[in-house]
Each structure stands twice: as C-alpha cells, then as structure tokens.
Amino acid sequence: MKHLSAFLTLLALLLATRASAQIDTTGGRYYKPLFANVTVTQNVVFGSAVTLQGATQTLRMDIYQPTGDTNPQRPVLIFAHEGAFVTGSKSDQPMTEICTRFARLGYVTASIDYRLISPLQLLTPADTITLGREAIVATQDMRAAVRFFRQDAATARQYRVHSGYIFAGGSSAGAFVALQTAYLDKDSEVPAYYNISQLGGLEGNSGNPGYVSAVRGCINLCGALGRREWLEAGSVPLVSLHGTADATVPYGVGTPGLGLPPQRLYGSGAIKPRADAVGVSNTLKPFKGAGHVPYNGTSATGVAYMDTTFRVLRDFLRPILREPGTVTARRAPVSLSLMQVYPVPATEAVRLVAAAGMVFRPQPLELLDATGRVVRRFRWEQPEQVVSRGALRAGLYLLRGETGVEQRIVFE
User: What is the pTM of this model?
Assistant: First the structure.
C-alpha cells in the first residue's frame, strides 16, 4: 500500500504538470493593482506537528486571493511572521499588509502560523541550541505550507496556483524561516548538536508528505542565515531588505539583540557577497540608518518603508515569472529518463546532461540513499550541470525528479 500511495502521488504530480496552463504577465498583471478587492480565507489548516514543548499544534494559514480573478495558474507567495520565535501570528500587521498588496496584483498570498517556543525555554545554558532547533521546526512548517499548495495544484486546484512558482518569504524570524526553506537543503549542513534526525529531518512531519517543498525564490525581510555556505551555485534567486542600523538582527555579521541567546549570524549585508560569489541572482535594498523592521506599523514612516518594500519585491518577482509583457508557456519538465548521468561510478562529482533536442526547464531534484532517505535537494538549473559529491558516503544513490523517474548514481 505504501508503494501504491507513492505511485499515485507521483502520477498526480505528472498529470498536473502536463495539464498546466500559462502564466500571463501582460496587461500589467503582477505589476499593477488590477484588483480592487481581496478575498481572505482565514484559518486554513495545512498540517499539524509536535512542538518542542511536546504539545500537538494544528498549523493554519490565511490565504489571500484577488476577488473576481479567473486566472487558472497563479504564483504563490508564502510569508512567515516576525516575533523572535516566541511570539507573533499570521495576522500581524506587516503580513496582512504585504499579502493584501500582492493579492491585488494577481498573486495568491498566504500568511502562516508556525510552531513557537516559550520564553522560559530561553533561560538555560542551552539557549542557543533551543533557538536553533526552533528555527528548524518552524522551517519544517513552512515546507509543509509549500507542499500544501503543490498538493492542491496536483489535486483539487481550489486555489488555482502554479506549482512551479511558489516563493518563500518572511519578516525577521519569519525571514530566517524563509531563508532556511530556500537554502538549507541537506541534513549534513545542520550542526550535529541540533539532533536533526530527532526532529524529523529538514522536511519534518508537519503535513502533506510526498510533495516537493522546493521554492522558486526567497524574500528576506530583515533576516539572517546561520551559515553563508548554505547558498550554493544553483540556489534560487533572493531579494533582501534590511536596515543598516538593525540592533535586533545584524545587517552584517554579528549576534542578535533583544536579549536573545548569542550566536553568530549573517545578515543581509553579509549574505549578498556570498550570493554574488556563487552566482545566485539576488537583490539587496539597504534601509540606510534604519533599525529593525522599519516597514512595521501604520505611521507615515512605517507606510513609506512598506511602500519601498513593496516596490522592491514587485520589481524582483515579476521578471522571474518571465519578462514583462510576455506570456510564458508552462513546459513539462525534462524526464530523468532523458538525462545522461556520468561517470558511473563516480568519485568526486557527476555530470547531468539533458538529451539533445529536448526543451529544458529547471526543476527540483532529490537524491535518495539506498534506504530511500532523501540526503540532498537541489535544482537542475542548466541543461548540463555538475553535482559534487560533497560529504556523501560511498554507495548507491537514486536521483529523482518531478516526474518520479529515477536515475542511478554510484559513488566509490
């Protein structure tokens, strides 16, 4: 039954991909507020998970859609709120504002709740580890939200989303979550003292298993990474906005404020050089002299910063949907049966090559070990691409794509 369920899931993904329509960016769509009103569906359940305190939490999101829109294929922006992982909710003002603004452009947007921790859990010598583990489980919840929309695209199509254009975003702590969703893609990258296996791995068990949690891009509002090296060649595009005088989350390299446990963080100003060095498409908008989340609130200053934030994100996202004024046809992904993988066996790296004459479209790939465990996730971005072995042990691995076809890789 387990194998039958997996087969049906993969079949549904394949059929959904072949049936996909187009993303139309003409007529100012995704650039101008073409829709006067937005319909908000509140408290949509997208999963459940056990908190670090041991309680089971139902995970909910609010989904924003342009009222009256009939477009069958729409991009999705999923946002996670701020609050230092101890407070905040999906209805916080910056989230409702940004979700509403982008829904008026034609996007489907969502603001999610994720697991939080009690402030009392940050009063022990293990504070840093606890906070790091909390960031991991919050990221698992974001990944479950991505899978929720990808499952909907492959089945009920209630929200009429394009599964190839799902973006992760967030503010402050939520930006940590979005950054990890986009770039922390290997269990081996997580410090051993977090005990990632005990947490359920990077994917976790928050809901909607069997669907890919990869995203098309990342929106980082005043966030940071624990390791710059998580950004690698082939990582998805990134847009960052950050106050240069942020005393809560460092703009460059530093430690967090608000009395949070000290740990080395790499803010937006430190992430950009890494992204540039490895060739990741990225945009950074520094808010010169501004503090933490300056776009928060309804004051004239807060609204002005939100206006700037909105424009920068809009201008970053639309070209990814394809060039302005064009209609982008949704092409089926190259089946891995049409891929050449060599050498086999390999020692340090393998080369992926799409068959000559095939229309190539980037797609997320998973590498599974002999037990069926996913050990790496990355994007096949170019018709010919090198995949390094890294820290993988010798043995047999299976490369799996969107169509479910698998290719064999052997490392000596």
Answer: 0.74
